[in-house]
Amino acid sequence: GYRGGSRTGYLPDTPTGRAIAQMFIRCFEHGHMFTVGSSVTTGAENTTVWNGVHVKTKPVGGSANFGYPDDGYFKRVLEELAGKHILPTQEERDVLTAQGVIEQATSASASTSASTPATNAVNP
C-alpha cells in the first residue's frame, strides 16, 4: 500500500489566485494533482507526492524557497495545468486576461496565424 498525507499550498487572495485555485480544484477532481511515488523532500517511498503541477508551499521567501514573489509563476502553472488538460473556463480566462496573466486572443492575430503559409520548414 501507500501512505497518504497532507499537503498545504498557497495562492494569493486575488482574482488571479482565486482563478488558479478553481483550476487546482478541477485538477484534483480529475486525479491529476497528486500521484503515489517517492518524496523528493523526505525520501519516503510509496507516499502521496505532487504530480507535475507546482504549488507554492510557503507564502513568502521567493521562488528559491517555494514561495512568493515568483515572477512568471502563474504563467508556468497555467502551462502545467494545460499539460494535464485543465484549461481556464471562460470566466477564469476573462479574469486572467484582465490581470495580465494571459494574452487576450484577438481575431486579427488568429486570422494572421491561420493564413500564414508553412514556409518555416527547415530546408535540407
Characterize the structure shown.
Mean pLDDT is 86; it is low at 108-124. The chain has 4 helices and 2 strands, in the order αββααα. It is globular, with a radius of gyration of 18 Å. Strands 1-2 form a two-stranded antiparallel sheet. It has a domain at 15-99: Enolase-like, domain 1 (2-Layer Sandwich). The protein is mainly α and 124 residues long. The longest helix is centred in the first third of the chain and has 15 residues, at 15-29.
CATH class of the domain at 15-99: Alpha Beta
Summed up, the helix count is: 4
* Largest sheet, strands/sense/barrel: 2 strands, antiparallel
Strand content: 5-15%
Any idea what the shape is? Answer: globular
Give the spatial strand order of the biggest sheet. 1-2
The residue-averaged pLDDT reads: 86
**Which regions contain 5 or more consecutive residues with pLDDT less than 50?**
108-124
- Gap between N and C termini, in Å? 53 Å
The CATH architecture assignment of the domain at 15-99 turns out to be: 2-Layer Sandwich
Regarding quaternary structure, how should these chains be classified? single chain
Q: What is the alpha-carbon Rg in Å?
A: 18 Å
| Category from helices, strands and their pairing | mainly alpha
What is the β-strand count?
A: 2
Find the CATH topology of the domain at 15-99.
Enolase-like, domain 1
Percent helix range: 25-40%
SSE order in H/E notation?
A: HEEHHH
